[in-house]
Amino acid sequence: MELAIGFEHYHVFARAKNNRFNTSTEGNITLHLIPKIINRSAIFVFSSFYLLFIIKKYKITHLLAQSSIHGGVAAAVASQIFKIPLMTEIHGEEYFRFLKKDSLKNKALAKIIDFTFKRSAKIRSLNRLMTAKLNTAGYSQNIVEIPNRVNLSVFTRKKENFEIGNMVKITSVGRFVKEKNYLQLITNLHQANINFHLTLIGGGLLKPGYMEYIATNGLQDSVTLIDWVDQRNLIDTIIASDIYIQYSISEGMPRTIVEAMALQMPIITTNVGSILGVIKDMNNGLVLSDFSVNELSAAISWLKNNASGAVIAKNAFNDVKEKYEWNKVFEIYRNELLNMHCS
After folding, report:
1. What's the CA gap between 306 and 299, in Å, rounded?
2. Domain spanning 168-324: which superfamily?
3. What are the DSSP calls for 159-209, one per residue?
4. pLDDT tens-digit map of 126-171
5. pLDDT in tens, 282-294
6. 168-324 shares the fold of 2-149+326-338
7. Any idea which architecture 2-149+326-338 has in CATH?
8. H helical segments located in the chain
9. Which of 57, 75, 103, 106 is the most buried (most CB within 10 A)?
């Protein structure tokens, strides 16, 4: 919790995995866990109002909400009652889907988001594209751009050899969930009739489906599924690959892309969410226009046969140093928090 640096006290408020209240302190950080009540996270919209008790007891002076819905509503109410400033963050593309108001459910959720945003001293955007989406949705005031950050003291190594051999080695990091679109990635690579090895790192509920397709099509030597790996081996695995790929059908702005940029990896990504706020096609990565086999195959072929792939990877690394380096972004983040005033 690097944001706690320099604060006398830093309080984290969240749901527990069980039905018990729990408070623990380490250094200047106190973690407050409240009962989960039920498994569905939607209950936190209501249970998070326990936050008012925490604020009063510990004399909280600034609020940071990672969701405008789950916890954000309670934080917005608390901000008005106690006259303390609130910053609300956006981390997922689903919020912009809600703001389209194209169904009764989304209209209701959009009202909740609007309630929180209008009571926030600042709204955190991750990049220029996300800011543009907020503007389109009717929010142009109090937006601050604070991008995802990457710690170059952790990601110390860089890819230096960009020559791709007969077998193309591809890696992606992310949970095995529908949004990551990994089954289609495996299928498309298989149908592209290229010699490939794909490593997927993340684990998740869809793993059995991936394994079934792999077994049915005899791809055991072509696809490796890894549930978890430590940081050192993660970096080694990515750098040993030829290409880092993000094949998602829905995203906000994944930190994993910025981390791959820090490792100076050639990157292929789909055009979803706010990724184009960071990746510029043919500049610091390759952006796919669709999810077809031909589009994916063409991008891989271009990197394999074009020396400019190394230039693109180096541009990505330079972008990280300039825009996403941990300490630079941390200072922006912290200063925006300290310098906000109650709306």
Report:
1. 10
2. Glycogen Phosphorylase B; (3.40.50.2000)
3. -------SSEEEEEES-SSGGGTHHHHHHHHHHTT--EEEEEES--TTHHH
4. 999 999 999 999 999 999 999 999 999 999 999 999 999 999 999 9
5. 999 999 999 999 9
6. yes
7. 3-Layer(aba) Sandwich (3.40)
8. 44-47, 51-58, 72-82, 94-98, 104-117, 128-136, 182-191, 207-216, 231-240, 255-262, 293-305, 308-319, 326-338
9. 75
